[in-house]
Design brief:
four-stranded antiparallel beta sheet, 103 residues, Alpha-Beta Plaits, alpha+beta, 3 helices
C-alpha cells in the first residue's frame, strides 16, 4: 500500500504554514484511507529525511453526484479521501514545489 498520495497545496494549507512564521513547519498530504498515524509518520520521515513532531488526520466523506443525460439520471459517489496534517520538528522543512514536479 502506498501511504502518501500527493501533497496538498491550497489556501488553507498555505495559511497553516504561515502560522509558525518563517519556520513553515506544517504541511498537508493526501494519504491512503487505510493508513494510520504511525504509518504516515514513518513514510514522511523516510521519504523526506525529516523528523515529524505531530500528525493529525481527517477523513473526508465522498459526495453524492448526479448527472442528467438524455437517457435519464446517473447517480454515484466520489471516493472517500483522507488528509494528514504534518507538523515537523524545529529546523526541518520540506520543499513542496520540488515535490510536485517529481510526481
Amino acid at each position: 500500500m502506498q501511504v502518501l498520495k500527493r501533497p496538498l497545496i491550497t489556501e488553507k494549507v498555505t495559511q497553516l504554514r504561515e502560522v509558525y512564521g518563517s519556520d513553515k513547519r506544517q504541511y498537508a498530504f493526501e494519504v491512503a484511507p487505510a493508513a494510520n498515524k504511525i504509518e504516515i509518520r514513518r513514510a514522511i520521515e523516510k521519504r523526506f529525511d525529516v523528523k515529524v513532531d505531530d500528525v493529525r488526520t481527517v477523513r473526508v466523506k465522498g459526495k453524492s453526484k448526479m448527472q442528467a443525460t438524455r437517457k435519464g439520471y446517473f447517480e454515484g459517489r466520489t471516493a472517500l479521501k483522507k488528509k494528514a496534517y504534518i507538523t515537523l520538528k524545529e529546523g526541518f522543512t520540506i520543499d513542496i514545489f520540488d515535490l510536485t514536479s517529481e510526481d
